[in-house]
Amino acid sequence: MRRFFLLTSSKFINYDEIGIITRFIVGAMMLSHNLRKDVCTYIIFDNKVCIIFEGKSMKNVRPDEKSILGILKSGLLRIDSKKESRILPGVIARKIIVEDFLNNLPSPKFFYSSTHGKTEKLGENFSMIFGYPKIENLCILLKNFVPFKIGKTDLYPDQLVVIINNKIDKGEL
Question: Name one Pfam family in it (predicted).
Answer without folding.
Answer: Methyltrn_RNA_2
